[in-house]
Amino acid sequence: MSSLQDRRREWRERLLLLREAIGELFAAESEALSRDLARWGKGFAFACVLLLAAAGIGIWLLALVVAFPVTLLSLWLPVWAATLISIGIVALVVALLALVAWARLRKLGGPIDRVRRRWRDHLTWWNERLLPPLEEEERADEP
């Protein structure tokens, strides 16, 4: 009979530990998630600013293509060649800004990926912490 009481006490202790661990897990996870989202939000905002800068320069691209470079280069080249060179240079700058912004966005990853990674880490932790003691008990019960 004492063996049954010992098992009940052992299970009660395990359940109490499990309840405490789950509470700590949720507290730590929500804190870590808020930090991750804040960090992700700052990076996302910076990438959006870069994209807006690229868009703004892209708008000015039209004025630049039509005005100064064409006029300047047309002093030495035919007008069509001066226009093409001006378009190419300004388009290259816009493309480089957009590529840098896109690379930063891809590097950030999404917040859902972070949550999945964290839950995977927690499941691994739970499996390592809780399952081995249960398996050892089962082996001890075998004849």
What percent strand? under 5%
**End-to-end CA span:** 20 Å
The radius of gyration over CA amounts to 31 Å
Give the mean pLDDT. 80
Helix content: over 70%
Enumerate the spans where pLDDT stays under 50 for 5 or more consecutive residues.
Answer: none
Largest sheet: none
The gross shape turns out to be rod-shaped
Total of helices: 4
Tally of distinct domains: 1
Fold and architecture overview:
By secondary structure, the protein is an all-alpha fold. The protein has four helices and no strands. The longest helix is centred in the N-terminal third of the chain and has 65 residues, at 2-66. It starts with a helix and ends with a helix.
Short descriptors:
143 residues, mainly alpha, 4 helices
Topology:
Blueprint: H1 2-66, H2 68-73, H3 79-108, H4 111-141
Helix pairs in contact: 1-3, 1-4
Outline:
With 143 residues, this protein is mostly helical. It has helices spanning 2-66, 68-73, 79-108, 111-141.
